[in-house]
């Protein structure tokens, strides 16, 4: 697995669009091998080929609760705990290089693919979310909300922001300190913002106003993600059984850094009218299609 990650990291570190695209496909293929079942057993050579050139034979879905007992997934999860093999770090660095390139269709697609993979990595390896407690990394996402970016990038960025903030209060405080609420509400008020993006922004505001839970994994061993993500990470958390000592300490340390809905309502009200209506919808269970 280290060899496959090394190969993809080499491509992701390139400034050539073709190599970056290949590196992203290799990461996507690796995640497919780790998270999805194969119809029949494969040799080591076949697995390597399917990772290097993914997309030919999409494997059937594996139940999320099965991942905790899967040796390949456990190995991948363990590798992500170290800096050398952490995929999120490489994707963030790749995103930084892409942001420095001129806007064109191919570059926009690479940005979207990078953000999609970041979402997956943060859901599969929640500790990687801690990278977005750093201001420079959080600023990357906020920059992608600017009107200069296409609606597809803006929409994908909003979901990536949710993945970076969910159950991670320290990241939310970084987001607030960097005037993230101003960036979100300015995009919502802008005439240049499309209706589809504005709908995603409203969903984000509902998510932001929800009461906070410290740390991932949380103190009761479950995850809480709004339905806009259309995923079920709670099963993934349960697959790992009882929490380790570090996770419990992380939850305890963050418990004093959380904010209530009322506190966040006051903050958001500085930038946007009608916040009371959003909170009322949230409390009555109307947000996210009635699933909160």
TrEMBL record:
Q: Where is this region: Disordered?
A: 45-66
- Keywords for the protein's UniProt record, in alphabetical order: Cell cycle, Cell division
Ranges of biased composition (kind: Basic and acidic residues): 45-65
Write out the GO biological process terms. Answer: cell division
InterPro entries named in the record: Cell_div_Cdc14
At the top level, the lineage of the source is: Eukaryota
User: What Pfam families has UniProt attached to this entry?
Assistant: CDC14 (PF08045)
The name on file for this protein is Cell division control protein
Q: What is the lineage of its organism?
A: Eukaryota, Fungi, Dikarya, Ascomycota, Pezizomycotina
């Amino acid at each position: 697995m280290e060899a496959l990650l090394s190969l993809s990291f080499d491509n992701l570190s390139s400034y050539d669009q073709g190599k970056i695209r290949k590196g992203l496909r290799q990461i996507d293929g690796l995640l497919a091998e780790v998270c999805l079942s194969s119809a029949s057993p494969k040799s080591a050579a076949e697995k390597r080929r399917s990772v290097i050139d993914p997309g030919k034979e999409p494997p059937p879905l594996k139940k999320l609760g099965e991942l905790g007992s899967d040796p390949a997934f456990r190995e991948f999860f363990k590798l992500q705990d170290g800096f050398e093999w952490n995929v999120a770090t490489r994707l963030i660095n790749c995103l930084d290089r892409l942001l420095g390139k001129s806007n064109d269709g191919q570059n926009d697609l690479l940005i979207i693919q990078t953000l999609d993979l970041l979402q997956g990595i943060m859901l599969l390896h929640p500790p990687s979310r801690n990278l977005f407690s750093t201001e420079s990394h959080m600023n990357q996402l906020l920059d992608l909300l600017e009107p200069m970016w296409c609606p597809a990038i803006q929409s994908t960025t909003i979901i990536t922001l949710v993945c970076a903030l969910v159950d991670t209060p320290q990241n939310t405080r970084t987001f607030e300190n960097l005037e993230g609420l101003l960036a979100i509400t300015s995009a919502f008020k802008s005439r240049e913002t499309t209706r589809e993006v504005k709908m995603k922004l409203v969903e984000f505001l509902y998510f932001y106003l929800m009461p906070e839970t410290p740390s991932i994994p949380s103190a009761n061993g479950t995850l809480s993600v709004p339905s806009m993500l259309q995923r079920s990470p709670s099963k993934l958390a349960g697959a790992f059984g009882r929490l380790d000592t570090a996770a419990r300490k992380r939850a305890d340390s963050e418990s004093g850094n959380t904010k209530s809905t009322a506190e966040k309502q006051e903050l958001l009200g500085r930038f946007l009218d009608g916040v009371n209506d959003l909170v009322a919808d949230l409390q009555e269970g109307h947000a996210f299609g009635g699933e909160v």
